[in-house]
Amino acid sequence: MDRYIDGMPAYLRNPIVSHTNDNMTIMFWIRVLARPGENPVLLSLEGIQIGSKPTFNPEMQQFIATSQYLILRNSTDMEMVQYGTDVADGKWHFMVFSWEPSGEVKIFIDSIKKRDENVITFDMNEDIIMQMIIGSADTHGRISKVRIYKKVFSDIKIYKAKDTDLPSDELVQGWTNIVLSRSTFRMYPSGAGNEKECDLGFPDCLDEDRTKPSISCPDDQTKFGTERLTAFTGLKNDYTKIEDVKYVNTSVHEDELYIYGSSNEVFVAYDEAMNYDICRFKVYVRYADECQKPETDATVEYCSSNSKHICGLNCQSGKALSLKHKLKYRCGALGVYNFEHPRKKFILPTCG
């Protein structure tokens, strides 16, 4: 779920509410390409009223992250913090910005700390409502997996955040939940790794946002086993590609042979960007074609008219069961009542 930055600013509709004396950490993947001398805006925050649209006026924004530096602004002062590098090089970069009301600012690019210093202080004695704005008129590229947290994390956690997710209970706003629900491969932002040329001039970028592929599994498979090994011919290819499937992996063994019992199987479909979809099904090799007929002189009571589950045993008047018995015996996909001794005759208490 990448926002395609097409030269016009975009903004998330839900405002960020910064609570009293709150810290803040913003992290995201970014990939932009700029000509020499350009310094495109990646992401900015503007204080607004709830329900209002942002002005897109840089003079109204408290936080502006460009490809070369960060601008912070409070009610009276402005401070510029240089990265010491330019990320508008057409490559994916993982960027993290954190700051505290005291003014301490940390900047990490690709898990390398670029700056750690005190700049201007922020007055957060009252709730501050800010809107996230993505890109600007001269920004061309992609932004992915935007996350905003209401705390400042330790350096070691930030070093690991490139490949792992931080605690979600501190997440204020972001696209993390949407990314994960679409099964985007987590080691890289969606869209990384494709070798196609596209009109933005990147050596390997996609020309549209990517959603997960889709695959369908067969229904649960059942056979009556007459030998130690039972074959399910064609099972390893018994799937349906529904949408955008490039590769398929499966847990079904190459020889497609199964012993008595049940097995859980999956098909995993990937697209070129390594987004994936999973479907699951079961394989049953039955011990018997039908559940064994109970051996007893009691009247067998089935759970329903079309059920093979036994829910009760009844004796004629004046007689009672010789032993206590379970309240229910299940006849399942494996066709047995006694899983510990599936070959033995099924004997229930008699009346006496």
Domain count, please report it.
3
Spans of at least 5 consecutive residues with low confidence: 176-209
Morphology call: elongated
Structural class: mainly beta
Distance between the termini: 70 Å
Q: Please, how many helices?
A: 2
Sheet-strand content, in percent, reads: 35-45%
CATH uppermost class of the largest domain: Mainly Beta
What share of the residues lie within helices?
under 10%
- Mean residue pLDDT: 79
CATH topology of the largest domain: Jelly Rolls
Topology:
Layout (H helix, E strand, L loop, with lengths): L2 E4 L3 E2 L4 E3 L5 E9 L8 E7 L13 E6 L2 E5 L4 E5 L10 E7 L4 E6 L2 E7 L9 E7 L5 E10 L5 H6 L10 E4 L1 H6 L32 E3 L4 E4 L5 E2 L8 E4 L3 E4 L6 E2 L2 E10 L5 E11 L12 E4 L7 E5 L38
Parallel strand pairs: 16-22
Antiparallel strand pairs: 1-13, 2-12, 3-12, 4-9, 4-13, 5-6, 5-12, 6-7, 7-8, 9-10, 10-11, 13-14, 15-18, 17-20, 19-21, 21-22, 23-24
InterPro entries: ConA-like_dom_sf
Organism: Mytilus galloprovincialis (Mediterranean mussel)
Protein name: Laminin G domain-containing protein
Report what the structure shows.
The chain contains two helices and 24 strands. By secondary structure, it is mostly beta strands. It folds into three domains: 179 residues, Jelly Rolls, CATH 2.60.120; 73 residues, Immunoglobulin-like (Sandwich); 58 residues, no CATH class. The strands form six sheets. Strands 1, 4, 9, 10, 11, 13 and 14 form a seven-stranded antiparallel sheet that branches. The relative contact order is 0.13. About 10% of the residues have low confidence. InterPro entries: ConA-like_dom_sf. It holds the Pfam family Laminin_G_3. This is Laminin G domain-containing protein.
